[in-house]
Amino acid sequence: MQIRGKTLVWSAAGLLAVGTATGLSAATLLQSTTQTAPAAAVTDSVAAGAAASHAISPATAPNYRAIVERNQAAVVGITSAGAMDTSAQEFNFGGPFGDNDNPLSQFFRGVPRPRGHGVMHVQGSGFLVSSDGIVLTNAHVVDGAKEVTVKLSNHREYKAKVLGADRSSDIAVLKIDAHSLPTVQLGDSDRLHVGDYVLAIGEPFGLEETATAGIVSAKGRSLPGDGYVPFIQTDAAVNPGNSGGPLFDANGNVVGINAQIYSNSGGYQGVSFAIPINLVKEVLPQLRGKGKVTRGYLGVLIQKVTPEIAESLGMEKGYGALVANVSKEGPADKAGVKVGDVITEFDGKEVKDSGDLPIIVARTTVDKKVRMKVLRDKKEIVLSVAVGELKDEEVVAAVPEKGELGLTVQRLTPQIAESLGLEKAEGVVVTAVEPSSAADEAGIRRADIILEVDRKAVRNVDEYKKAVAGVRKGRGVLFLVRRGDSTLFLALKPPR
């Protein structure tokens, strides 16, 4: 999702005040991170929200002054302190596959960071959802913190306990030892529409009780590394320090938690993202009760069915989720799912786009047996799958052959396979891609391993030549390629 150098930036953990770091005074840090049925009311806010029956977003502009006056006392500032080791030149995004394989790492390449060791203080926002001191914020605001401080609007400060944090959805639940506190009212994010008025309150750059307003720009946005969150996109100004703060609808009900911005400067540029409050309601009981979230797991690598891929598969239009890889012995593998299947329905819910499937599966109860519809060779097949549980650890000597598609391939020797971390030398390796060619436009890259052409296995250069020889000009051709530890389908359209 990188567009001309734009950068996804966590909007909260942006203001950095370093007290004891070597060689540091003050600096700006761009912080990154890597996604059940509706829960019963468990907080004052949820109970109040369930009783609310207001229509969302009237035709006229809302009374922003009233919304701020009613809610600003329930919005808090959060400071988390943790050990800092910044001896490397760039951000370390962590994760089980290392920095290079993290999908978000590409957006932060070349971003300098302070160097040294010491204590890092990260500032963010949050809001009270129960009068006995339950606070909601972003997980990345408190990630790795040894000490978390919550500051109320009356400037009283409390040490907070992190009851639970979920990196996948970027939601954290805190508890402070206080009573009779003001709270917000949780609304219904499903009733939001593009164009509805919204208002954000938080502490951008540490500026307390700052309110900014805008409209809903889009719903259901999928962002790299956040497959379990259908983000609300808004144009309300959100900046470093706003993360974890509430997003209100026109009636003053919280409909989201501000989480990210899209920027090439580190500051607000008109595109902000919030976590829908209905998703928060689903994970809140688990985080409050057991400190973590349990999600369903299917065991497939999927991708979008583009118009070109749809044509190659004989589909009238692109929809569903295309299976590019199946985890061995995973739930999908045991259910009979195959590479090339297009999943169109899961547990009675339609999969209109590939981004729908991770959200649906994640919300499905572990061990539940569900019906799943797939398209295979132009036929609809119904499979039964037992949903698993998502675990934390689960993301020179040959003559090259060049063709009209704009890519150069050569034999995948055992030596090349070993250098690429492959167990066996099957397929052909891409050694060059011509700029603006069909291969380039389809997204094929140097060092990709071509495994199939139009669903025909390619084990060597001869098989590759035979496969591409039968490609008709002007018709889409489907490639299955291995890239790193993943496989994906790419549709090429040869020139007429």
Brief overview, please?
By secondary structure, this protein is α+β, with helices and mostly antiparallel strands. It has helices at residues 44-51, 64-71, 139-142, 277-290, 307-312, 331-335, 356-362, 414-419, 438-442, 461-469, and strands at residues 7-10, 15-18, 26-28, 75-85, 117-130, 134-137, 147-151, 157-166, 171-175, 197-202, 210-223, 226-234, 246-248, 254-263, 272-276, 296-297, 300-304, 321-326, 342-346, 349-350, 369-376, 379-386, 388-389, 401-402, 407-411, 428-433, 449-453, 456-457, 477-483, 486-492. A hairpin with an 8-residue loop joins β14 (254-263) and β15.
How many helical elements? 10
What's the domain count? 3
Q: Please name the CATH topology of the largest domain.
A: Thrombin, subunit H
Task: Please state the CA-atom Rg, rounded to the nearest Å.
Answer: 25 Å
Instruction: Tell me the CATH architecture of the largest domain.
Output: Beta Barrel
Mean pLDDT: 78
The main β sheet shows up as:
7 strands, antiparallel
Overall shape: elongated
Based on secondary structure, the structural category is: alpha+beta
CATH class division of the largest domain: Mainly Beta
Distance between the termini: 30 Å
- How many β strands by DSSP? 30
Strand content: 35-45%
Helix content: 10-25%
